[in-house]
């Protein structure tokens, strides 16, 4: 990038009685006056207020606060100190409208109580922040209507890009995304081959992989125990069915599909329900590690031997799974890697660079421990 020398500093003219201190650094009393004046108009200190207090143009203030090198460092320091003293807070929506650009990326995830999405967001933030962008996080709670409302609220702010979890959304939400023309990448799942940008792995293949592992260990009555029942859980169920059908072992009565949110408490309840089946299963595939952990704790309370009496497996390799008694066999998912690569793909789209391939499969890992 071309470097521009800082402009020669010009001495400020001395104040006169006819012209109040427009060119002086503000005194402690001045910010209050500026704040009072702007509050009457809009309730907030504006860029123009800061510019007037320092004695420069609003454009110079904007450039200084953005860190552009063409502004003299001493002036930058003065502008930043004045802005902080006056309580100036940049308005990202106004900046986007003025420049037709935004530094915000809208990231929609189902939950923040799940480590899976916390890890993903951490990786997204790190990548975006290094490139000068900021993540604007919305939580959908696995609710299509809530996601649609978030899109209606934030798309008018003209975000630079969108990072959406999966592909399961309402037709109206899809239409909103398409009409916005905002670059968009889907996370945690793979596209259907139509060129839709996505970063993830095959949930169905991962579900089939851990089911085949149980079959190879000699288990014949393998139950699928699931909560939440979002699109990715049901894709794991598809993989489970496929693997058991291939082995000639599929029994639909061994599917326990409960729509309640996953939790350790739900895991204990699902274990109890599975053990009441006749005949009882000899292996349990839980759709997520938190319910699998709850099932292991319940088995420990009951004195139930795992895996001798019943094998237990999970999905996602959440923190603590390797510390369970016995340690939990699970699928390790690359959520941090997905966040990093998804953000990088989106940055390419924002810059107008080609993305090849548009669908990035990061795979998964079967982690075999003592619970199976």
> What is the oligomer described by this structure?
single chain
Q: Order of strands across the widest beta sheet?
A: 2-1-3-4-5-11
Report mean pLDDT, rounded to a whole number.
88
What is the share of helical residues? Answer: 40-55%
Shape: elongated
Q: Write down the Rg.
A: 28 Å
Q: Tally of extended strands? A: 12
Beta-strand share of residues: 5-15%
Largest sheet: 6 strands, parallel
Number of helices: 13
Could you give the distance between the termini? 56 Å
What is the element string, with H for helices and E for strands?
A: HHHHHEHEHEHEEHEHEHEHEEHEE
Uncertain runs are: 1-40
Which structural category do the helix and sheet elements fall into? alpha/beta
Protein described:
Helix content is 43%, strand content 13%. Helix 2 packs across helix 3 (58-66). The protein has helices spanning 30-41, 47-54, 58-66, 73-86, 92-99, 115-130, 144-154, 171-180, 203-216, 231-247, 264-275, 289-302, 335-350, and strands at 104-109, 134-139, 161-165, 184-188, 198-200, 222-226, 255-257, 283-286, 311-313, 330-332, 359-361, 365-367. With 372 residues, the chain is α/β, with parallel strands linked by helices. The protein is elongated, with a radius of gyration of 28 Å.
Give the key terms.
single chain, 372 residues, alpha/beta, 4-stranded parallel sheet
Please provide a brief summary of the model:
This protein is an alpha/beta fold. The chain is 43% helix and 13% strand. The protein is elongated.
């Amino acid at each position: 990038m071309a470097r521009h020398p800082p402009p020669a500093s010009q001495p400020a003219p001395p104040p006169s009685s006819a012209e109040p201190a427009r060119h002086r650094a503000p005194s402690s009393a001045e910010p209050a006056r500026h704040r009072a004046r702007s509050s009457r108009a809009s309730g907030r200190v504006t860029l123009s207020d800061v510019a007037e207090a320092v004695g420069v143009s609003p454009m110079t203030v904007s450039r200084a606060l953005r860190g552009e090198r063409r502004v003299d460092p001493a002036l930058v320091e003065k502008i930043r100190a004045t802005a902080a003293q006056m309580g100036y807070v940049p308005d990202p929506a106004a900046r986007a409208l003025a420049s037709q650009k935004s530094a915000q990326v809208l990231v929609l995830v189902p939950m923040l109580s799940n480590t899976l999405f916390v890890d993903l967001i951490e990786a997204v933030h790190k990548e975006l922040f290094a490139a000068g962008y900021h993540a604007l996080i919305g939580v959908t709670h696995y609710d299509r209507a809530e996601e649609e409302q978030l899109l209606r609220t934030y798309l008018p702010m003209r975000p630079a890009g969108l990072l959406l979890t999966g592909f399961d959304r309402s037709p109206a939400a899809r239409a909103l995304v398409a009409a916005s023309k905002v670059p968009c990448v889907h996370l945690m799942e793979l596209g259907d081959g139509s060129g839709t940008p996505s970063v993830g792995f095959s949930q169905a293949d991962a579900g089939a992989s851990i089911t085949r592992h149980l079959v190879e260990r000699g288990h014949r009555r393998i139950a699928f125990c699931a909560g939440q029942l979002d699109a990715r859980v049901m894709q794991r169920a598809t993989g489970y069915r496929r693997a058991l059908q291939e082995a000639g072992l599929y029994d639909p009565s061994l599917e326990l599909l409960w729509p309640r949110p996953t939790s350790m408490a739900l895991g204990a309840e699902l274990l109890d329900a599975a053990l009441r089946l006749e005949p009882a299963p000899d292996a349990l595939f839980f759709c997520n590690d938190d319910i699998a952990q709850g099932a292991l704790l319940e088995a420990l309370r009951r004195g139930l031997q795992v895996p001798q009496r019943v094998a237990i497996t999970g999905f996602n390799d959440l923190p603590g799974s390797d510390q369970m008694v016995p340690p939990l066999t699970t699928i390790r998912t690359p959520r941090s890697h997905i966040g990093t690569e998804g953000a990088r793909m989106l940055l390419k789209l924002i810059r107008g660079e080609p993305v090849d391939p548009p669908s990035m499969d990061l795979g998964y890992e079967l982690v075999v421990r003592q619970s199976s």
